[in-house]
Design brief:
The protein is mainly α. Helix 3 runs antiparallel to helix 4 (about 95-125). The chain is built from 6 helices and no strands. The longest helix has about 30 residues, at about 95-125.
């Protein structure tokens, strides 16, 4: 809870800086990279995404329903994705180690939260005995999203702590995928539902 509040406060600070620099004439100084409005907006969005992620992890501890956690994770995914868009508007960011790390962190965290959201939805489908949907969703994660995570781990700009967390996530997913495949082969014999027919996960953004 405290971590979430601190991230929300940080988001407010970046928003305030952005508004002040854009409206006050006495603060019209030559804009450095870190004072660019897209950078400040991106940092604010990053803090909101971190707060949303905190809410997700707290939900895990509180044993919140998988259907709810899937929506919260998708909210974090959308917020992290918006960070990448905003940072992408500042080409100079790609020229510094710090900027590259920010961009890579936002990209990788966005993918990771998407994986978590899809995994939680698959878990909810299993609980609802929707095994065709579950194995189809897990297959999609394996064939597309996990590959994106693994590619991100090869990027030298990925922070070590984030890389370690992503490796654990990939390991946990593959274990879950193998369990689901084994159950399907031995018990359910379902044909995985194609992606186009799978239920779209609606996002819930609680960090504001």
């Amino acid at each position: 809870k405290n971590g979430c509040n601190f991230f929300l406060q940080a988001a407010g600070v970046f928003d305030h800086l952005c508004n002040e620099l854009s409206t006050r004439e006495d603060l019209k100084i030559p804009a450095s990279c870190d004072l660019h409005d897209h950078v400040l907006k991106g940092l604010s969005a990053f803090m909101l995404a971190e707060a949303q992620e905190c809410i997700f992890h707290r939900g895990l501890l509180d044993r919140t329903k998988d259907s709810v956690l899937a929506k919260v994770a998708m909210g974090a995914y959308e917020l992290y994705a918006s960070v990448g868009v905003l940072f992408g508007e500042v080409p100079v960011l790609k020229q510094s180690p710090e900027g590259k790390q920010l961009l890579q962190s936002a990209k990788l965290k966005s993918t990771a939260m998407l994986v978590l959201g899809e995994m939680k939805k698959a878990s909810d489908e299993r609980n609802q005995k929707q095994f065709k949907e579950e194995i189809g969703r897990l297959t999609y994660i394996n064939d597309h999203l996990v590959k994106d995570l693994e590619a991100g781990l090869k990027n030298e700009s990925t922070p070590k702590e984030l890389a370690s967390w992503c490796r654990t996530l990939i390991k946990n997913f593959k274990s879950e995928f193998e369990r689901a495949k084994k159950d399907n082969q031995l018990i359910y014999h379902e044909i995985p539902m194609e992606r186009a027919r799978q239920t779209i996960i609606q996002q819930t953004v609680m960090a504001k």
